[in-house]
Amino acid sequence: MRNDLEDIISCIDERSIVKLYTTGYGLNLKKASELKNAGLDSINIALDNIDKDVHDRIYGVKGAYETSLKAIENAKRARLLTCVSTVVTKERIESGEIITFLKYMKKIQVN
């Protein structure tokens, strides 16, 4: 996450809204609050599977799943409109996994 992101966001006037797309890396509560105070309206955090091992394998980083979940929690606590992005595939639809995923999103109360 850029160190000057708050400065960039604060330059945008009321004619626009600002949405950030991220893996969640570096989004602790302090950073989420600073982004909110700078004018960030919403954040979209990548979560491509609710199976930790599958998500980590997709991103090639052990712990990527936990990073995403913690970022979601921090964004919600900072009162940002918190969304999740995922890739919907034919296989995920046919297996019913996408329904399980969406139910989990509802459970953790993403917007």
Write structural notes for this entry:
The chain is of the alpha/beta class and 111 residues long. It is 50% helix and 13% strand. A three-stranded parallel sheet has the order 1-2-3, with helices on one face. α2 links the parallel β1 (19-22) and β2.
SSE order and pairing:
Blueprint: H1 5-10, E1 19-22, H2 29-38, E2 42-46, H3 52-59, H4 64-77, E3 81-85, H5 90-95, H6 97-107
Parallel strand pairs: 1-2, 2-3
Identify the notable features of this structure and list them briefly.
6 helices; alpha/beta; elongated; 111 residues; 50% helix; three-stranded parallel beta sheet
Number of helices: 6
- Helix-and-strand structural type: alpha/beta
How far is the N terminus from the C terminus? 22 Å
Strand line-up in the sheet with most strands? 1-2-3
Mean pLDDT: 94
Residues in helix, %:
40-55%
Shape: elongated
Topology, number of strands: 3
Rg (C-alpha, Å): 15 Å
List unreliable stretches of 5+ residues: none
Strand-residue proportion: 5-15%
Along the chain, the helix and strand elements come as HEHEHHEHH
How would a crystallographer describe the biggest sheet? 3 strands, parallel
Quick overview of this protein structure:
The protein is of the alpha/beta class. It has 6 helices and 3 strands, in the order H-E-H-E-H-H-E-H-H. 22% of the residues are buried.
